Amino acid sequence: MIHLIAGKLKRIAINTILLFSALGIAQEINFGAKAGFNISSLRGDYPNGIEKKAKVGFHIGSLAEYVVNEKIGVQPELLFSRQGVTSKTNNEGFRLTQTTLLNYLNLALIGKYVVLEKLSIEFGPQFGYVLTAKSKWEYVDNTDSSRNETLEFDLINDQTFTFLGETFMGEGGINRFDFGLSLGAAYALNEHVFVQVRYTLGLLTVDEISTFNQSNESWKLKNSVLQFSVGYQF
User: Fold this and answer.
1) pLDDT over threshold 80, residue 80
2) Is the pLDDT of residue 52 over 50?
3) How many domains does the chain fold into?
C-alpha cells in the first residue's frame, strides 16, 4: 500500500513537470534536493491539565524548480518528514507522558515569487500520507516506582493492549491523508545552495476516533510544522 501511495505522489510530481514543459511555461528547470529539521506539533482541543510540547524531527527529499520568468517560479517537492507531538499530564501522584511519532510522505506544490535578487517568498498546498504512526505512553508514579510502566503501540492497525491494569481497544483511527497550506521564504547563498524556512498549517484532522487519548471524545488534532532546510540545486 505504501509503495503505491509513494508511486502516485511521484507520478503527480512528474506529470506537473510534463505539463509545464508541454505548455512551454517553464523557461528553465532546476532539479535539486533538500534536508533539514522540523519543529512539529499537533494543535487542537486538549483537555485542561494536559501540557503540549513540540517535537523535533527531520525531513529530506527532492525538488524541481520551474522558472517561469525572472520573478515567478513553481517548485514541486517530494519529502519524507518525521513529525509528532509530546503531551504531558502532571498530577500530585503521577506523571503521564504520551509521545506521538508520525512519518509522512509529503508532496508540496509551491509557488515562488522573487522579492529581492536572492530572496523569494513561497506559498502553496501540501498533500501528505502517513507511512507509519507510533505512540509511546510513559507512566511514572511519584510515590511507588514499582508501578512505573511504559507502553509502545501502533496507531494505524487495530489492536488490544493493557496499560496500568486496564485493557484498551486500539481502533487504528489515524487519518492517513493530510492536506495543508505552506508559507515560507528561501534565500540563495550562491548559484547552487539555498536556505529555507517554511510553516505548514494542516487543515485535516489527524486523529479521527480518539486514537491518542483512548477516550470517548476526539481532540481533533491537526498538524503544525515549522521547517528549516538547506538545499542544493544541480
Assistant:
1) yes
2) yes
3) 1
Beta bridge partners of 96: 89, 139
Dihedrals φ, ψ of 11, to 5°?
Answer: -65, -35
| Average confidence score pLDDT of the chain | 85
Confidence band (pLDDT; 50, 70, 90) for 209?
very low
Residues 6+ apart with CB under 8 A from 162: 168
Q: Cα 4 vs. chain centroid, distance in angstroms?
A: 19
Instruction: Tell me how long the chain is.
Output: 234
The cell 503501540 sits on which residue? 153
**Phi, psi (5° rounding) for residue 157?**
-90, 145
Instruction: Report how far apart, in Å, the C-alpha atoms of 157 and of each of 101, 128, 173, 182, 211 are.
Output: 15, 19, 8, 30, 11
Helix (H) or strand (E) holding 17: helix 2-23
Residue range(s) defining the domain that contains residue 192: 2-233
Of the two residues 5 and 36, the one the predictor is more confident about is 36
CATH number, domain with residue 137: 2.40.160.20
Q: Are 129 and 138 in contact (CB under 8 A)?
A: no
Average confidence (pLDDT) over 173-198: 95
pTM of whole model > 0.85? Answer: no
